[in-house]
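TICKET: design request
STATUS: open
ATTACHED STRUCTURE:
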């Protein structure tokens, strides 16, 4: 039986898939953080999570560029990303072992902090480039509308 789909059902389905991807990516990041910070596993033992954390946003960026859609350039997305990052930074001390607290050995925090700083730098550059691209696309679409 052929199922007819109108625009509303397609939007709802796409929204569900987007939420599912966000949830799965959060689970992967949480798994990576627990393995590296709490269980002190090496990168070779967390390779699946590491690859997924890199490839998922790259895939999204490529698909967004291919479809000429601009997402996440508003103030709300910036505030949410900064808030998520700050929450992650606040959770890191909870993954330290008690022996690290007593000895004052916080060297295990260096890799995640460097990762977060680099992530924020790349995110800032990407969002800035997306804002510029949004302006260009808006001008192009406005010019196309005026010619019609």
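STATUS: resolved
RESOLUTION: sequence designed for all positions
ATTACHED SEQUENCE:
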């Amino acid at each position: 039986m052929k199922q007819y789909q109108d625009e509303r059902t397609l939007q709802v389905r796409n929204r569900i898939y987007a939420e599912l991807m966000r949830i799965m990516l959060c689970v992967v990041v949480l798994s990576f953080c627990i393995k590296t910070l709490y269980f002190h596993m090496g990168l070779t033992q967390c390779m699946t999570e590491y690859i997924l954390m890199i490839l998922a946003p790259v895939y999204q960026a490529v698909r967004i560029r291919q479809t000429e859609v601009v997402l996440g350039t508003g103030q709300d997305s910036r505030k949410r990303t900064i808030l998520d990052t700050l929450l992650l930074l606040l959770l890191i001390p909870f993954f330290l072992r008690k022996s690290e607290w007593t000895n004052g050995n916080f060297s295990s925090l260096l890799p995640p902090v460097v990762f977060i700083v680099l992530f924020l730098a790349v995110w800032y550059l990407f969002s800035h480039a997306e804002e510029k691209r949004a302006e260009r696309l808006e001008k192009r679409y406005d010019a196309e509308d005026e010619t019609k």
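CLOSING REMARK: Residues 110-147 form the longest helix (38 residues). The two ends are 40 Å apart (CA to CA).
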